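Summary for the steering committee. The consortium agreed at its last meeting that each partner would contribute one worked example illustrating the joint modelling workflow. Our contribution is presented below. We chose a case with several input lines so that the handling of multiple components could be demonstrated. No manual editing was applied between input and output; the record is shown as generated.
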Amino acid sequence: DGGITQSPKYLFRKEGQNVTLSCEQNLNHDAMYWYRQDPGQGLRLIYYSQIVNDFQKGDIAEGYSVSREKKESFPLTVTSAQKNPTAFYLCASSLDSGQSRHQPQHFGDGTRLSIL
Amino acid sequence: KQEVTQIPAALSVPEGENLVLNCSFTDSAIYNLQWFRQDPGKGLTSLLLIQSSQREQTSGRLNASLDKSSGRSTLYIAASQPGDSATYLCAVRSAAGNKLTFGGGTRVLVKP
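What follows is the complete predicted structure of the assembly.
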């Protein structure tokens, strides 16, 4: 079955530590996205990538970094510069290229990050 | 800057009653609007996507309408069931830029 896999499901970070969240998709989608969700709130965009080796900052990119070396993979690193990292992180993908911008976004099951 | 609002933030109804969920957005220049369902601790499941040129979309008991000029969408869920209890989020894809802007969601409880 095609889908989006996020790992780990739960992650704990120590002070001053960088942690990386994994997101893999086998849907052959061009675009991938990272969102952050805080309790009782909607999603906010951190970074997105429309094509391999290219990505753009979203609304809350400070303290985060990404890479897109392969079409299937879009890992997110939460750096020590992110002072309030505790949240639910969601990865999404969509078939977005050229005229295909009307396609829906599909989501993984999320990673919950907490501070030790 | 696009802003999306969902009111009410929470809703509780008895089983069998119809649900009406509202979503409003400030910039009418959109590609599409998407409704999602989120269960506690889970990711988002896409329910319906309405293109900017469409007025409504239907899937089973779900019907979503779009009035782009007034910046509103409504999700109707007919004959609600306890299994419909979840948070429902709407998201707008703006014509300027290639990203979704989400509302804060409406948390729904259907009581048996």
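Chain A has a mean pLDDT of 90. DSSP finds no helices and eleven strands in chain A.
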